Amino acid sequence: MTDTPHRRGADRTEAIMRTTLELGQKIGYARLSMEAVAAHAGASKQTIYRRWSSKGALLLDSLLSLNEPGLDYPDTGDLVADLRAQIHAAVDLLAGPAFGPLFKALVGEAQHDPQVAAALNERLIAPQADKTVARLKAARDQGQLSPGFDLALAMAILSGPLYFQLLITQEQLTHEYVDRILDALFAGMRPRPPMPAAQAGPPPTPGPHRRARG
Amino acid sequence: MTDTPHRRGADRTEAIMRTTLELGQKIGYARLSMEAVAAHAGASKQTIYRRWSSKGALLLDSLLSLNEPGLDYPDTGDLVADLRAQIHAAVDLLAGPAFGPLFKALVGEAQHDPQVAAALNERLIAPQADKTVARLKAARDQGQLSPGFDLALAMAILSGPLYFQLLITQEQLTHEYVDRILDALFAGMRPRPPMPAAQAGPPPTPGPHRRARG
Amino acid sequence: MTDTPHRRGADRTEAIMRTTLELGQKIGYARLSMEAVAAHAGASKQTIYRRWSSKGALLLDSLLSLNEPGLDYPDTGDLVADLRAQIHAAVDLLAGPAFGPLFKALVGEAQHDPQVAAALNERLIAPQADKTVARLKAARDQGQLSPGFDLALAMAILSGPLYFQLLITQEQLTHEYVDRILDALFAGMRPRPPMPAAQAGPPPTPGPHRRARG
Amino acid sequence: MTDTPHRRGADRTEAIMRTTLELGQKIGYARLSMEAVAAHAGASKQTIYRRWSSKGALLLDSLLSLNEPGLDYPDTGDLVADLRAQIHAAVDLLAGPAFGPLFKALVGEAQHDPQVAAALNERLIAPQADKTVARLKAARDQGQLSPGFDLALAMAILSGPLYFQLLITQEQLTHEYVDRILDALFAGMRPRPPMPAAQAGPPPTPGPHRRARG
DNA sequence: AACTAATCGAGACGGTACGTCCAGTCTTGGA
DNA sequence: TCCAAGACTGGACGTACCGTCTCGATTAGTT
């Protein structure tokens, strides 16, 4: 029988997360209450609290349920192209209509809930960062980057401006913006064995969307 | 008469903001309620709502009242040293015990309150960013940076990693971390007319605290 | 000059009472606040509190300002006809759209404000009752009522059922109801020198609207 | 298990009504707030509002909980004696220290809350009035009253003066006053086949407490 | 087939805070 | 000197959720 009024276990878990996403998208994740999720999911509050200790925990699980596979890095041999492809994909997700508001709400929760902050890092941020670091490491191993290159620092430098744009200035995150950052950074990051010296800022190397502003 | 029990206007404004800071520091800004601020400030809720439309607005004004003068940039002629000095100061503030938790709470609010987000940008982020941009512009005007150098982008690249550390990974923000970022970036940003060619990543030029990690 | 923005004394008093009546009629006397009266009258709250110590006091004065002359008794020699005429007039006022709601609100206030209760009695109830008593006394003096007739008691018996209808059952007060009460009462109250014996209840004497119900 | 900290339903209902009575008696029903009842009853406001939509509704239920059985009429065969007994009992209740202030407050509420007015009539006034009417009807059926006697009207005439005294003049309601009214009225109401003719007003027949005043 | 244990929805409960309204007092500045 | 305008504290309003807690009904997995 599949039409029993309330089924058990995983059934309920999934229904609650789906309701969280739908309702959050409709009314905003800030206005979303455990009460409302319970009512709309046809679940009791007890059932929700059995599984998630806070709204943040529920949001995080709901968000992760959207993106089980994660974003994978290509390795075409061209580091900059690979990073660009991956960051474009990440930006499409983070700044997209489904994921974006939820992610921002989650970061908001993380600012006053250490448990959410920790879980957010462990389950969403770190896995993605690890992939970037792995790709950079491959490049370093192949001599495309100097041996002393600080991979984690590079990752932070690549990611930071995006989060700044997303969380602080709250302007739209575009591929063009990503490209400008990559162009600016790789003038400095790239080793320059043959070339005389890469120009700083927007380097002469033509990026697809590069345009100076300052 | 100056000793009336409640003098008007500015008096109450200041008392409420002071209470917000004290109480927020004691119990945490997330647990801080308008109700509690009113009670501890000896003010009525009406008086608070007359001035601030939301907790976020109150937090922002309270935070700004801590830092009326703002941080000013030196201009010693040495761009990197000047940026380092200013960013150290900014980090001391942002990651310090008084300002830090409040600022994080405010960014949290900004994630679900567009008014707070806008005010945060206009009144806290932009003024500071403008100073960085001005210092960079002076350097560019003096030929220390290439003419096409994108000042706003550079500002985002300099700031981004710090906010990433503060808001996402929530690790401690140290001077040493700032130095590593500056070292890594300025290998690429700096124009290199005289120098042979700065190596990317952690450049060979010894920065004060540089240490590889990846 | 008559168009100064705020004139003094009696001017203000009258404006405030007029506003009380208008606003009370529009939104109901229960929902009427001192605040609203002040705002609509273009007066400050201070000015209102200077003249009236409570909403009840203001209501009472406003009500009395409607009815300065009061209701006067005719004395045509026919007691029952005179009482009927006067009570009809009183009922028209008390149950009318202008006076009625205000009077009911005032009685409501009187139930928890002894000052209002006292003022209501002294300034509204007693003066009217006195006229009824005076008319009854004239009748007694002329031998139309027995010498031991208790005038005040008769007044209470005549009035009581009307207030019961107005305040408790809240049904419509009609002339017909007044007549039925008078008919029933005067079968007992009237002395019967010549007649053999007046029938009790609805007496046989034809009243204009008499009709049995029980 | 019967000792759970808060058992359900009726428990809370009763505790809240008891608190309403106690607190109302102590501080006055006008000054009684839902807030205070909740606090003193150890209940949340929600719990109160779940059961009663307004202070008036709560007052009415609390009052009725004082008087579950109601007042019953004797039928000794002597109509006047029975009415007197019953009205004495009613007056003892209405003008007594427990019931009186509460009843007056309730009538006050009824003046601006039609729901309270309706409930007051249905649940308190009408049941009692019905008993009076029933007793009068028995008397009429036995020929003690004329066949055309209007029972409902008589009830209003009997009750009205008491409510007038209680609500308007706010003087003390005594058995003596009740007796004077009954004496005055029954001179007219009573059929007088055998008797010579009852005098109106205070009839010559000596009632137990009769005394002229006018 | 009946029993047991787990799980569910429903929703009552004490609480805390919300944002609003009004009471009654006080201050300021203009007429 | 009187006024309007309106700021101020304080208290209550009625509502929304929180997280905890019964309560029966339903279901699975034993016996």
From TrEMBL, chains A, B, C, D:
One of its GO terms (molecular function) is transcription cis-regulatory region binding. Residues 10-70 form the HTH tetR-type domain. Residues 192-214 are annotated as: Disordered. Transmembrane segments: none annotated. This is TetR/AcrR family transcriptional regulator. InterPro entries: Homeodomain-like_sf (IPR009057), HTH-type_TetR-like_transc_reg (IPR050109), HTH_TetR (IPR001647), Tet_transcr_reg_TetR-rel_C_sf (IPR036271), TetR_C (IPR011075). Keywords: DNA-binding, Transcription, Transcription regulation. It comes from the Bacteria. Residues 33-52 bind DNA. Residues 192-207 have a biased composition (Pro residues). The keyword Aminoacyl-tRNA synthetase does not apply.
